[in-house]
TrEMBL record:
Superkingdom of the source species: Bacteria
Span of the signal peptide: 1-25
Protein name, entry field: Endo-alpha-N-acetylgalactosaminidase
Residue span(s) of domain Galactose mutarotase-like fold: 31-269
Short name of one Pfam family: GalBD_like
Every Glycosyl hydrolase 101 beta-sandwich domain range: 547-644
């Protein structure tokens, strides 16, 4: 066909052929490219047959005409006219029963790819087009008569023990499918040509045919005059979603054809999957996945602020040094409000002030980039909590309760949230306030499918963010990382990750969303910053080098062939597992052998190589070509302080022999070390080296026997043994009121005087008696607690700690100085620096995430009377201390470092409270000089909807340390209890 234009007006009144009927010959048009010719319908944008112009091989489409399509779910008769050019045809489709409704569609051929598109939808006030569906469009058909017909369809299947793939031949024995079968991905092969299909199909519903992405592609086996055949076509498109004020991008489907691509001499679905990469949806940021070796989840919850943003910055620097600059993927859980699962969906404008607020967050985001780290935050578009400023009875269904840990959440009306533009405004606020510093958003517990999911993905991408989520079957197009796929100790194996060889072959280099693979491995999370109570830094580093670095090496090379015994990747890389022992090779050189390796980095342009040997010992390796020409190379051991030179290694025949300690990372390079970067621990705070991350006492003025040690979890801390010691810093602080605090532990069972001081004020303790049960705190399971002193600054202030003489070992860590007023003897909880004010978790149960937190007022939703709520979350002002305990235990208590009761003095303690039931009691207790803490008196607290005052008087113990606290004597369902206006009066000192 020349470039002539032809206008063909044809009736399309022929009925859709039933299976087995003979097709009536229909006029067709031909599109041509250098590679293909494609015969297409003249009455409708359908493909009749594809022909490879070089080989003459053919792959069929639909020979019979299409006389109806579905609009808004109902069949509608359709007629069409066509205008053609060499490589495209434009169609005008009209509907005899829908006057004024018209679809302008096209078929366009570019190279080996054919694109079907609905370029314009014209509808009327009487009939608005919502959804468009073309059942039986049959953009691809393979027949039993083809040389080696094969169908490959992949469903998004998450069961670790399942399989989402359906790969099968089409034979004379193939029986018709009663109804079409859905999948997310589809490929076919004739043995001479292979093809893949992609589409922007989306369903305007949550669940149903398109659920879990498995209605994007349809296929059906039919009996035809030419024998059994299987046809493949796109799923439904949404043009205008219900309730939406605007329309969606133009519907399209793409088909790409290919010959043999992977060098195995067989043309099958794997060749189609490789070709599919040319047309597949490209999630934003996929190019970064292969370099995100180090994966972290700094965790804040329940007002505890165990990982302030500036501390996370220090950890980012430390990890950078320990890995020689490997890329980091850092998911901040609890960046907002009181931390994790609080105040969703306030994406912006409501930051975790106790963790540093927006200023601290932006310091982390901006400065963290210098250390090769990408950052994202955990958000929620599914559930909302009443303290959220966005919360309303319009936002949520108040009768649809969701997750409840510290507060009850409710299901968001996600369609209304989108169609109103509310979620877009909240997201834009976050983007604006974080100044573009966030790389990705992680959407927690996202359950919707269809339009609400796809539109959200589009809105997030438009703001420049990448996406991650909890489960791999949600937000599948854009998601690069999913939690359950990477955190293999977390939750159910039935939802672990995508389990499909088809999708894995196509996208292994793009995503961390798959179940672990025996050859290709898979990224994993092992945490040290508190998520799920994991705090072992050494285990975190071991996972980085044992699991993630090899996985990410492979992700640099897209998969070409995949079987149960071998994976062949681009770049001459292959993976096998003889005898169950995994091996990597590149161009025949052994890189990885049963967990030991010398891996070039960066894989495609290496200037160094990482060495790891789980068993330790001596091993010999081929150097990367880029280093093999050297006469010698340098060997470094990697530490938290960066490279530690071990020595020079001779190079013989391009090989090097390394003697290594077990499970210890090393680096081989020909380069001289670059100047050590200035780490500046404490950046963004008034303190220097607050967590002793430098490995020494840099930044501190010291006297006595203090030194920095590394504990069994790999955490550095200051330790005082033997004689007296002091550590201090002179800080420059604007005039104002502050709280300085330090984690302190006196060796359990012993006594030693410790004084935390600042600005002329001090807090004293001699013993550590309360077990730290804050699961996200690195000191969990020890007796280390935060010791706080309030002070005023006139511009320059000395802050520090004095340890008296004694034989008890004293451990110190994590200095914080933040603006906060001194509450004196009355806590109103309005401006608490972190934690529960005068209280700490009671220490009686195993470490867990607290169910007590500082509650923020958002009337009427947080207060008594709304939706049947029994008590106020907040009694006075804007903040109170709220408990929602289930377990039988001591929810919280004072310590001598938070409230000191002088021995033998008479005290009055009072507070206001509200209680939804009778589950709680008030305790006066004692830490004896010898033995475990004990209750002295336990007073049941009656239920109170209307807040009231509880008062107790007692004489402080002369033989131990007295404390007070809240106990739930027996377990049961979560029950709300709010405390406020906590006051302590020393009656012997004139208090009243």
């Amino acid at each position: 066909m020349s470039t002539r234009q032809s206008l063909l007006a044809l009736s399309a009144a022929l009925a859709l052929l039933a299976p087995g009927l003979t097709a009536v010959a229909q006029p067709s048009l031909t599109l041509r490219s250098a590679e293909l010719s494609v015969a297409v319908g003249a009455e409708f944008p359908r493909v009749v047959v594809y022909t490879d112009r070089r080989s003459g091989a053919v792959l069929h489409g639909r020979s019979a005409p299409l006389t109806s399509i579905q609009l808004n779910g109902a069949d509608q008769r359709v007629t069409g006219t066509a205008r053609s050019a060499v490589d495209s045809v434009r169609y005008a489709l009209t509907f005899p029963d829908l006057p004024g409704v018209r679809l302008d569609a096209s078929l366009a051929l570019r190279g080996r790819t054919l694109t079907f598109r609905i370029d314009q939808v014209r509808d009327t006030a009487a009939f608005r087009v919502g959804t468009i569906d073309i059942p039986g469009h049959d953009l691809l058909t393979v027949r039993a008569a083809d040389p080696a017909p094969q169908v490959a369809a992949a469903r998004v299947e998450l069961n670790k023990n399942g399989n989402g793939d359906r790969i099968y031949p089409v034979t004379t024995a193939t029986t018709p499918d009663a109804t079409p079968l859905g999948s997310a991905y589809g490929m076919v092969s004739t043995g001479k040509l292979a093809a893949a299909i992609e589409t922007n199909s989306t369903y305007d519903n949550n669940g149903g045919a398109g659920a879990d992405e498995n209605g994007r592609i349809w296929r059906q086996a039919r009996q035809t005059p030419d024998g059994p055949a299987v046809s493949v076509w796109s799923g439904r498109w949404t043009h205008r979603a219900q309730g939406s004020p605007d329309t969606e991008p133009a519907p399209w489907a793409k088909v790409t054809l290919t010959g043999e691509r992977n060098g195995d001499g067989v043309l099958d679905w794997q060749d189609a999957a490789i070709a599919f990469r040319d047309i597949m949806w490209q999630p934003k940021g996929w190019e970064k996945t292969k370099d995100r070796v180090v994966q972290r989840i700094p965790f804040n919850i329940a007002s505890s602020a165990t990982h302030p943003f500036t501390r996370t910055l220090d950890d980012t620097k430390r990890v950078n040094q320990a890995t020689d600059g490997l890329g980091q993927f850092v998911l901040l859980k609890g960046y907002q409000s009181e931390g994790h699962d609080a105040a969703h969906p306030d994406y912006g404008g409501h930051y975790n002030e106790r963790a540093g607020g927006l200023r601290g967050l932006n310091t982390l985001l901006q400065q963290g980039k210098r250390w090769n780290a990408d950052f994202g935050v955990h958000v929620n578009a599914t559930e909302s909590y009443p303290e959220a400023r966005a919360f309303s009875e319009t936002l949520v269904d108040k009768n649809n309760k969701q997750w409840a840990w510290m507060d009850q959440s409710y299901r968001i009306d996600q369609r209304r949230d989108l169609t109103s533009g509310d979620i877009q405004r909240r997201l834009a606020e976050l983007q604006r306030e974080t100044r573009g510093g966030l790389d990705f958003l992680y959407f927690d517990v996202f359950r919707e499918t269809g339009w609400t999911a796809d539109r959200l993905q589009r809105e997030v991408r438009k703001l420049g963010w990448e996406m991650a989520t909890e489960w791999s079957h949600r937000l599948e197009r854009e998601t690069l990382w999913t939690h359950w796929a990477t955190d293999i100790d977390y939750s159910s194996e039935t939802h672990r990750g995508i389990n499909s060889s088809i999708i894995r072959l196509a996208r292994n280099h793009q995503k961390d969303v798959f179940v672990h693979h025996p050859l290709l491995m898979g990224a994993r999370i092992v945490e040290f910053e508190g998520w799920t109570g994991e705090t072992d830094y050494r285990a975190f580093l071991a996972n980085t080098f044992e699991q993630n670095l090899p996985t990410k090496y492979l992700q640099h090379f897209p998969v070409q062939r995949l079987s149960t015994v071998e994976a062949v990747l681009d770049g001459g890389v292959s993976v096998t597992a003889p005898g169950g022992k995994r091996q990597f090779r590149k161009d025949g050189r052994l890189l990885y052998d049963d967990g030991a390796y010398l891996l070039p980095w960066s894989p495609t342009a290496p200037d160094k190589a990482y060495h790891w040997n789980p068993a330790g010992g001596t091993s010999t390796w081929d150097l990367p070509v880029e280093l093999a020409g050297q006469s010698s190379v340098r060997l470094y051991r990697l530490t938290d302080d960066g490279r530690q030179h071990v020595g020079a290694l001779p190079v013989r025949d391009g090989k090097v022999t390394i003697t290594a300690e077990a499970r210890t990372p090393y680096l081989v390079t020909a380069q001289s070390p670059a100047p050590a970067p200035r780490l500046g621990y404490g950046e963004g705070t008034p303190t220097a080296n607050p967590g002793f991350d430098s490995g020494d006492l840099t930044g501190w003025r010291t006297s006595g026997a203090a030194k920095v040690e590394t504990n069994d979890l790999g955490q550095r801390e200051a330790v005082v043994r033997g004689g007296a010691a002091s550590l201090s810093q002179r800080l420059t602080l604007p005039r104002g009121q502050y709280a300085a605090s330090l984690m302190v532990e006196v060796e359990p069972g012993k006594s030693r005087p410790v004084t935390v001081f600042a600005g002329g004020k001090e807090t004293r303790l001699a013993r550590s008696t309360v077990t730290n049960i804050v699961a996200s705190e690195e000191k969990k399971g020890t007796k280390s607690q935060r010791v706080r002193v309030f002070f005023s600054s006139d511009g320059s202030t000395e802050v520090g700690v004095r340890v008296g003489a004694g034989d008890a070992v004293v451990r110190l860590d994590d200095l914080r100085v933040v603006a906060a007023p001194d509450p004196g003897n009355r806590w109103d909880f309005e401006r608490v620096d972190q934690g529960f004010g005068p209280f700490v978790p009671g220490g009686e149960i195993a470490p867990t995430d607290a169910r007590t937190h500082l509650a923020e007022k958002h009337a009427p939703f947080t207060q008594r009377g709304w939706n049947g709520k029994a008590v106020d979350d907040v009694i006075e002002g804007n903040w109170s201390l709220k408990s929602f305990e289930y377990a039988a235990h001591l929810a919280y208590r004072t310590t001598p470092a938070t409230v000191r009761f002088e021995p033998g003095h008479r005290y009055r303690v009072s507070f206001r409270y509200a209680a939804a039931g009778t589950a709680y009691s008030w305790v006066v207790g004692e830490d004896p000089a010898n033995g475990a803490p004990r209750d002295v008196s336990v007073t049941p607290l009656p239920a109170r909807g209307e807040p009231g005052t509880h008062t107790v008087e007692f004489t402080a113990s002369s033989t131990g340390d007295t404390w007070v606290g809240l106990r739930r004597p027996t377990g049961g369902d979560g029950e709300e209890f709010t405390l406020d206006e906590f006051a302590v009066f020393d009656l012997d000192a004139g208090g009243r």
